[in-house]
Amino acid sequence: MPSYEWLIEKGIGETRAALLADDTIVQARIETDSSALRAGSIIDVRLSDSANATGRTLATTDKGDSVWVASVPRALTQGSLLRVEIIREAVTERGIIKPPHARPALPDALPKEGASLEMRVKASGYPVSYQQNHQPDRLEKLGWSEVIEQARCGDIDFPGGRLRMALTPALTLFDIDGHLGSLDLALKGTEATAKALILFDIGGSIGIDIPGLSGKSDRQKVAECFDQHLPPPFERTGVNGFGFLQIIRQKKRPSLPEQIAAYPIEHEARQLLRQACRAKGAGKRILTASHFVIDCLNRHPDWLEALARESAAEIILKADPMRPIYQGDVAVEFPAF
To answer: Can you give the pTM of this predicted structure?
Structure first.
């Protein structure tokens, strides 16, 4: 059996956590320091509309944010107050923010905030370690940047092939491609997909496009392979004659790919801050990046102040309009003596 350990890094603007299995990252999580409602939060909302075709009712928080509430008691009318539990956090799709989903809270429930990433990690039952900026970068040594790049671009290599992951409004889609024999490729690709779902915390509706399966027996082997590598609970169809498998998993919060896709500039700005925190030397930190990333940093003076405190150095921002947003770098200008 592998040895499991959570490794947490509390960065500027976000907390990062990785579940390690014998020094392999099997789960990667990021939680930003935002004020978004977390899953598990219990709050009071005011009903602002009647139930729609899905049975959900639109409500608003005391801050004016929208929440979809399921199973509202019939006796409550528009304008009524209701205590609810957040069961799915807000999700952003192509610039559209889908409000959180909630349900009526238990009668004796008191208002509270949902568990943070750090709290959830500590409740997992696995040992927990923390990584500080002055310590060796275990996350990077174990492939953190590669995992983040997979989540960002959607290309995930496995022995003999590659997964191509695409985010759509309806589902997260995986396409299996490679040079192995049809059944071997399907089995390895399906295993890799199941591991990606765990790695990135992908829930909701998921589809896998599996090429070249010739018969019912092969399709059944692929479905059984998927079951072996993805822990329950989940629901799935069989692999149909077109080689498509659909899965439904519980979704409490945006997956890591969805987080990055929803706010790519903010994500890259925080990754640049991570680089700057770990840059060696006592001189000025010169952060060079796309002007979009630099503008983002300028809109977060608290991030820059935290970096200045962490590095005990002056911070200089340089915008390069020719750079993609994901190609920032950090230089240290050593003082002249």
So the answer is: 0.94
Tokens of 167: 């985010």
User: Nearest to residue 28, comparing CAs of 260, 229, 276?
Assistant: 260
Cβ-count burial of 214 within 10 angstroms (0-12 exposed, 13-18 middle, 19+ buried)? exposed
Q: Are 88 and 249 in contact (CB under 8 A)?
A: no
The domains located in the chain, with CATH, are 4-34+118-141 (3.30.420.300), 42-104 (2.40.50.140), 144-256 (3.40.630), 263-333 (3.40.1260.20)
Provide the residue-wise pLDDT of the chain in tens; the chain has 337 residues: 789 999 999 999 999 999 999 989 999 999 999 878 999 999 999 999 877 777 899 999 999 999 999 999 988 989 999 999 999 999 998 778 899 999 999 999 999 999 999 999 999 999 999 999 989 999 999 999 999 999 999 999 999 999 999 999 999 999 999 999 999 999 999 999 999 999 999 999 999 999 888 889 999 999 999 999 999 999 999 999 999 999 999 999 999 999 999 999 999 999 999 999 999 888 899 999 999 999 999 999 999 999 999 999 999 999 999 999 999 999 998 765 5
Question: Which one, of 172, 177, 227, lies nearest residue 200 by Cα?
Answer: 172
- Sorted by sequence, the CB contacts under 8 Å of residue 299 that are 6+ apart come out as none
Rounded Cα–Cα distance for residues 186 and 107 (Å): 49
Structure tokens at 25: 């990252």
CA 269 – CA 263 distance, rounded (Å): 10
Task: From 267, 256, 258, select the one nearest 292 (Cα to Cα).
Answer: 267
Distance CA 84, CA 60 (A): 11
